[in-house]
Amino acid sequence: MTDLQPIPDDWTYAPAPESREIVTLQPRYGHFVGGEWLEPSETYETLAPRDEEPLAVVGQATEEDVDRAVGAARDAFANGWSTLPGSERAKYLFRIARILQERAREFAVLESLNGGKPIKESRDVDLPLAAAHFFYYAGWADKLEYAFPNRQPRAVGVAGQIIPWNFPLLMLSWKIAPALACGNTVVLKPAETTPLTALLFCDVLRQAELPPGVVNIVTGDGRTGAALVEHDGVDKIAFTGSTDVGKAIQRRLAGTGKKLTLELGGKAANVVFDDCALDQAVEGIVNGIYFNQGHVCCAGSRLFVQESIYEPLVEKLKQRLTTLRVGDPLDKNTDVGAINSRMQLEKIEELVASGREEGADIYQPPCRLPEKGYWFAPTVFTNVAQSYRIAQEEIFGPVLSVLTFRTPEEAVEKANNTPYGLSAGVWTEKGSRILWMAQRLRAGVVWANTFNRFDPTSPFGGYKESGFGREGGLHGLEPYLEFDA
Ligand code: NDP
């Protein structure tokens, strides 16, 4: 007879840590230039935001390093890549996609370790989508003449690509896949705080036997990004990041003839009508703002609730927040991981303090935050006026501002009352109302009865201060092409 297991009196989750053994980190990384590792002249340490553990020493690329990377990209462009048949370029992209799938667990663990996002997100969202982007654009590589009939598309040349820290590998895929599909070569700079999956990606390029110099990766802070923007050998800049830096880049490139796409900040409205499926809407609201700790440019950070359901909705939302598990990004049960950096944590704290001072009511569920590392509890502000900073500025953290409306017209008016225009959400059972709202909301993406859904076939990008140009889908090819007719 076996011993009976005692009936648990506490149904909390047991720890379910993902092993990090699968990742082998080098103590030190250089820059990946011309298919080789270039020894960096300056370095810095990259950390794990969950406990500030130093993970590796990486290079801080100087102007000379950037110059070598651009030179390698130019050589690769001139010496074969740009004239390679599209069907041959596609083979490399397919290979990269397959290798990413094969090594998905390794990449997911490293992404969560270096960036702080929950492993279930990097495993179930970032990695599958990153591979899907390479698969999708592999399919276009030999069909560009059909995608743009009678326009004679050809590659632009060398693309300089600057990406942020919220979706490091996914943003790399959004940038590199369409660029290579169109026959360009690339110099990419990952964000200062999250360089490690981009550096591991260099090993994927080696496995895929991509010709040297087609993709070059230089690490470093904003100075490296600025050197890339200013380099004369770069034909196109693709930037994702803050609106301030985006504006500075646009000013810098004015009159140079370089092509530019900017994917910048957002302050998305998530609009909930009283005829919606309430529980489903609450899940969508939670996904909209607490996914990836709210480090999402299209996060649903302004919730507009129709007045008649305000009280039950806020009640349900607060209840749902008590069930979110905040903690170790590498634990498979974690819903909300670590804030990406000390700097970002301070920015969130400052904006949350301003919300309190301006008079909003704050709610945070009881949760014990780890002592080391960068952490912020999921937060809801109610009693928010449109003029408050928490309703105007991008917080880029797990902080939701709740506002109300009475009529659809008022919802549209308030939702569009922002300098941004990246995304929006609508919750209602009426299809006609969804279409009515989608026509009026000034946002690049409008989700209906869902939020934060991405697909490589669907273009993504902003209006107004959220930037210009589209990534994903057929539209995502255009910024990487010149047209001779
Ligand atoms: P940045 O815009 O500074 O960073 C984005 C990328 O640009 C990084 O690779 C960064 O390098 C690089 N960069 C910084 N300065 C320059 C420059 N002068 N020229 C060229 N490249 C540059 O965003 P932060 O990381 O500083 O975040 C600040 C705020 O921006 C966040 O709080 C959030 O509100 C918003 N943000 C929005 C994102 C979005 O997807 N829309 C993504 C990230 C942030 P480095 O990493 O070294 O700074």
Brief summary of the model shown:
This protein has 485 residues and is of the alpha/beta class.
Radius of gyration: 23 Å
CATH architecture group name of the largest domain: 3-Layer(aba) Sandwich
Biggest pleated sheet: 7 strands, mixed
Count of the separate structural domains: 2
CATH superfamily heading of the largest domain: Aldehyde Dehydrogenase, Chain A, domain 1
Under CATH, the topology of the largest domain can be stated as Aldehyde Dehydrogenase, Chain A, domain 1
**Beta-strand content estimate:** 15-25%
N-to-C terminal Cα separation, in Å?
Answer: 82 Å
Shape summary: globular
Strand order of the largest sheet: 13-14-15-12-11-16-17
- Note the total helix count: 15
The poorly predicted ranges are none
Give an overview in words.
The chain is an alpha/beta fold. The chain has two domains: 31-264 and 464-483, Aldehyde Dehydrogenase, Chain A, domain 1; 269-448, Aldehyde Dehydrogenase, Chain A, domain 2 (3-Layer(aba) Sandwich), CATH 3.40.309. The protein has 15 helices and 19 strands. It has helices at 63-81, 86-102, 104-115, 119-140, 144-147, 168-181, 196-207, 222-230, 243-253, 278-290, 310-321, 342-358, 389-392, 408-415, 431-440; strands spanning 31-33, 36-38, 43-48, 53-59, 153-155, 158-162, 185-189, 215-217, 236-240, 259-263, 269-272, 302-306, 361-363, 379-382, 399-405, 423-427, 445-448, 467-468, 481-483. Strands 13-14-15-12-11-16-17 form a seven-stranded mixed sheet, sandwiched between helices. It has a six-stranded mixed sheet with strand order 8-7-6-9-10-18, with helices on both faces. Strands 1-2 form a two-stranded antiparallel ribbon. Helix 10 (278-290) links the parallel strand 11 and strand 12. The radius of gyration is 23 Å and the shape is globular. 53% of the residues are buried. Residues 162-166, 189, 191-192, 221-222, 225-226, 229, 240-242, 245, 248-249, 264-265, 297, 344, 347, 394, 396 line the site of NADPH dihydro-nicotinamide-adenine-dinucleotide phosphate.
